[in-house]
């Protein structure tokens, strides 16, 4: 079972240590003591809370799609250089960057502050973890 110190749990969720302590007091998380008698929370419990409380924006396109890797957010930057454009979106805590034709960018009327949804297709996804050995 993965156990996380309160400060780490707070950092991973982008909240304060006091917020984690309030969630413990409210019963949203369970506090335990580790082998060093430090306060910790269960990693799986924290992950479930993070997933349940994830603030996602509604997809403004309202299209039906088989794609599951869709991120809705605000356009934060548009850089058009010749025939290509780079569009950055802030989707919750994640930044998604798309390279597209300048023509497509103009047709979609993308500009900072626009609401948009990015669809991501990857042929490979890798995951890194901390070596605790």
UniProtKB/TrEMBL annotation:
SUPFAM superfamilies: MOP-like. Keywords: Molybdenum. InterPro entries: HTH_17 (IPR041657), Mo/tungstate-bd_C_term_dom (IPR008995), Mop_domain (IPR004606), SinI_DNA-bd (IPR010093), Transp-assoc_OB_typ1 (IPR005116). NCBIfam families: excise (TIGR01764). The keyword Lipid biosynthesis does not apply. This is Helix-turn-helix transcriptional regulator. It comes from the Bacteria. Residues 64-129 form the Mop domain.
